[in-house]
Structures are given as C-alpha cells and as structure tokens.
Amino acid sequence: MALLSLQPFRCFTPRRPSNVSETTMPALSFSPGLWGSPEFDSRRLSVVDGGKYRRLAVASVVDNVGDEQVAEVAQIVQERDFTGTPYVPIYVMLPLGVINMNSEVVEPEVLMDQLRALKSVGVDGVMVDCWWGIVEAHNPQSYNWSGYKKLFQIVRDLNLKLQVVMSFHECGGNVGDDVHIPLPHWVTEIGQKNPDIYFTNREGQRIVECLTWRIDKERVLKGRTAVEVYFDYMRSFRVEFDEFFAEGIISEIEVGLGPCGELRYPSYPAQHGWKYPGIGEFQCYDRYLMENLRKAAEVRGHSFWARAPDNAGSYNSRPQDTRFFCDGGDYDSYYGRFFLNWYSNVLVDHGDRLLTLANLAFEGTSIAAKLSGIHWWYKTASHAAELTAGFYNPCNRDGYAPIAAMFKKHAAALNFTCVELRTLNQHEDFPEAMADPEGLVWQVLNAAWDANIPVASENALNCHDREGYNKILENAKPLNDPDGRHLSAFTYLRLSPVLLERHNFMEFERFVKKMHGEAAPDLQINPNEENTAGSSANLQ
User: Fold this and answer.
1) Residue-wise pLDDT tens digits, 228-250
2) How far apart are CA 534 and CA 197, in angstroms?
3) Residues with catalytic roles
4) For residues 48 and 19, what is the distance between their CA atoms, to the nearest angstrom?
5) Which of 12, 150, 369, 423 has the fewest CB atoms within 10 Å distance of its CB?
C-alpha cells in the first residue's frame, strides 16, 4: 500500500487555526508497525490547508510550545477540491442478470429500492445491457423486449435516465461475469455447422463469445450478413421503445463492437486459460479472416505474407520470451508492420460499419462505443497485449488516433475503461507486467480530445475506496487543462449489495458530489464499522 512509503514529518500547527477542521477519533486502531509506535494514543483526523488541495492527516500530539502544538503527522492522502468544477453525469451499471433468459425482470421490488437509493444521492441514470441472446434467442427477427419494457418503465418512474448497450456478445467467462447469457440459440446452431463464424486462435480453438468481423459482409446467418442482423436488432429496439426516446429517458445508445461489448479482438479469453498478465494471442485464424489476409498480401505484392506470426508465443507468454514481441523483434519488421496494420484495420473497419448503421437506426440520439484499457506491457517497446487485441500502438506509433478519427466520423462518444487504476499499485502487485494504466489513459483521452469527440469512462473493476475515486476524478477533470476538457459522463461498475453497504455508499455519495462539482463533506469514520470492499487494482 502507498501508506507504507509515507514518512512522518514534524510540523507546527496553531492550536485552533481557522482553516483546519478536526474530528477526534479516540478508538481508531492501526496495525502495529504501520505508524511506528504506540504513542498515537490521542489521534485527530485533520483537514490541513485550503485551496485546490486538502491534506488529510492523522496526528498525535507530542508537546506544546506556547499557543502552538508540535505534532508528528503522517500524511494519508492529498485531495483536490472539486467544488465549482464542471458537472459530469454519473450512471450506474445494472447487474448483468437484471433480465433473465425468459426476458423477465429479476426481483423488481429489490431493484426499485436500490434505484431509489441511487436516486437519493444524485445519480443521473443507469446503464443496462440489452442482450442479443435474450431478445432474439430462438428465431431470426423474433424479438422479445417484454422484460426490458418493464425495466425501462421502472427507471422512468424514478425519473432516472438510461444508457442502453446493444450487447451482441456472450456474457460469462470474463472478469466480473456472474451470469451466463449465450449468443442466440439459432446462431450457435449455425456455428455448430460452420465454426468459422467465430474468432479462432492458432490452435484452432473457437472463441464463441462473439462473431468474427469478417462475416459482417457474408450471408451466413440464414440469408443475412452479420451487420444486417445487428441493424435489424437495433431498428427493432428503436421502434419498440419510441416513447422512451421521445421523452428523453434514453440518453445514449452504446453499440457493442466485440467481446465484453468492447472494440477489440478476444485476445485474452479466461475460459481458454489466459491469466494476467499474459500477452494474449492473435485471433485471425477463421477462414474468413485468413482469406481477407491472403487478399491483402497479394495486393501488397507479397503473397507469402498471407499468414499470421508463428513466433508470437501463447496466451500467457511474456514479450521478451517471443521472437515477435521482444525488443527488436519481428513486430517492427516489414512483414510485422504489414500484418499489424492489416489486423488493426480490420478492427477499425468493423467499428466503422456498425457505427454507420447505428446512426441510421438511432438518428438524433447520442451513440457511443467502448474501448478496453489494456495497460499491461505498456512500458515495453512492442506493447504486446495491445497488439494482440488489435491496437497497433507500439512505442513508435500512436495506435489510438485512427480509432478516434473513426469515432469522430460518426460523432460517437468514446467510452474508455480503467480510469481508477494507478500505475504504482500495478507495479507493487505485478512488477513483471510492466503496466502503466495512467500512461494509457492519458494517451487515449488525449487522442479522443484531439479528435474533438466526447469522452466518457467507466472503472474496469469494482471500486469502493477513496483512492480509486480520487484517481477517477483526476482523470475526469484534469487540473489546469487550458481547454477545460473533461469527461462527458462516467458509468460506475456496478450496482451491488456491496456498493450499498453504509460506508461504501457514503464514499460513493461523496464521489458523486465531486463529479457534479458540488461541495463534498468529509466523512465521519465509525471505528466499529468495517470497510468491507476495496478496489482491486489488477486483472487476475
């Protein structure tokens, strides 16, 4: 933890300064050795200084000198005052299984109580996945929206807004997935006869989480192409929920573009044995993508380049253990640059096609898409984990500018993850991962802002602690930005009983106020109350 590296320092503080608020905490306990000695028998939680930053400190009185106290102080955290900063709307993701496979709302009374609690602390709205595998489960173009209709009515009655995700992927098998929602049954039946509709790795393993992007234009889904299937689904949703669009309840549509709803290849599937911080694998071995690669190589004039790298390791390899990703490796050869450029262009082209159709289906409504935050191996030259996911972002190339330009073309907001993670924590937990989430966030946010597109964000993993919230705030509203840039919205992952526990919910309310630019009072810490949940700062 960061606290272990902080050294106590001696300071003089007036006995009752006007800019210090104190809360006596006689029963607060600390781990032996953390603060050094048992002299901390009378402790005060002090807010020292004003201005843009406030320092929270725990102090033990040592002695008195006249009207001043000599205190031994260990600084805990430096906090910025966000009062008067721009208003950033806050949405909360609903549980993955809020709608069951029968298209019914699960425990609607419990959900209503939870939504009332969110509303009471100023949350602007909620985000919900509209699962393809539930709505169009049994037959093509036979849609069952009944559960979502009831859910949206509940949200409207509580005067909350809706961000709706068109989720064209399977739920289950990834970090944080607690339910299983497969692709539509009629699609998986096609996949049994033609498994090349799925992404495929070098060993021939099929990634059934979503459909390969090269069938976007192939009529392999009972006479329709994949993009026609997606468009028909979106158009049906727009017609079915017209009243919610007209009333402004639905504020944004997020279009699922890949696994986990993110624009990336399924390069690190946990169900196939990937573990953090493995580099992942290229997913281009289905016959549709390989045929496209063959044509690209012929156009380039090097037909022998119609292959994927055979020296790129496996899911859990490290860059330095492969000849493709190591420093000076083949990723930067003529062939490597050709392959990676083709691989990333397939990703951008898929996003381009779906966002074009989303704008047709949802004309007049804000649309967005999500980009994953692949921060491990960011401090290496090749950025191997990003390359296998389709982000051509080695140290000598900006791989996110072309994606931002594509979003700009469609006036789509870019939703980015992992804004709560700190590089220091990643280094402490997994020093071998060479991760840099802060550097990645800064690069992606600036690529989007330079393209003049709205940037929203969400946390990658559960976050209940002030350190994580403060990191989100720093990224949401950069200090001293000459252009005053800030996030257009933030979506919190996710609604759960743990979030609603008293201490966690108090911290969350404080975070909401700061995101809204309101004054946020300091919390009174109850020593008898257990802080049960903390932010996990790594993917495992």
Assistant:
1) 999 999 999 999 999 999 999 99
2) 40
3) 262, 458
4) 7
5) 12
